[in-house]
Amino acid sequence: MSNDSELSRRSFFTAGAASIAAMGAGMPEAFAEPKKPGETRMLYFGGDYAHNGLGQEKYIRQTFSKSGIRLFFAQASRFITPEFLATVDLLMMNRVGDFDPRGYSAEGLVENRPEPDAFLTPEMEKAIIDNVRERGMGFVALHCTAGNLDNTELMKLIAVKPHKSGAIRQPVRHHDFNREHPITQGFESIEIELDENLPKEIDDDKAVRLFMSTGKTEGTTKNGGWCVERDKGRCVVLLAGHTLDSYKDKQYRQIHWRAAHWAMHRDIPPFSRG
Prior knowledge:
By secondary structure, the chain is α/β, with parallel strands linked by helices. It contains eight helices and nine strands. It has a nine-stranded mixed sheet with strand order 2-1-3-4-9-8-7-5-6. It is globular, with a radius of gyration of 18 Å. The relative contact order is 0.15.
């Protein structure tokens, strides 16, 4: 992936760690306050140079508006500390690349934007994996999250075979839904007007395929989604999400809804669109 910055990956790790430490008391209060009894926290981390994070946030808010879940959204890695992750019940992520898409600034108007933080530092990757395996945090990996090839341990966690792959934008049909799984039972076909049909392979016999996807321009059929249990935790991989079309689609919103509740070991209530 190309980046405007010429700093090395190692330099970004150093800069990212320093910037996190420098935040200190500047962290939002809600990130530090203890959870209330019965509170469920969901963190959505999305948006990069190729994917519309603000649009994703808009539709995720609508999808989960009647869930009773407390929603948090982040576009800068520095806020996703191990301490905050330890309070999160579900992490949903649509991110790829070495760096955050822009340098975080609390100012509304800047002349020179700060250098961006490193995305998915070793500390953050370990925190995600540990929270899933040891604490049972749910993890829903959307679209390009399965393309972070340098993060080999995270790819193992979500059962992705790491290999470079490209895709074109095209109409995509999701089909062959797993009728036995609570995330996908009852679905027949979902038509997405424009998306990518990522050629990602499952790399673990423990993973359960949820559905297939066919790109209508290319005519090729690929894995569309799967799930896997890891010690105390559950992971779901959903490969749609390059554009906002899957986020807006009423049926695919139900897939997000069901995947989120299943990943948290919760009963899946009927979906009520916000």
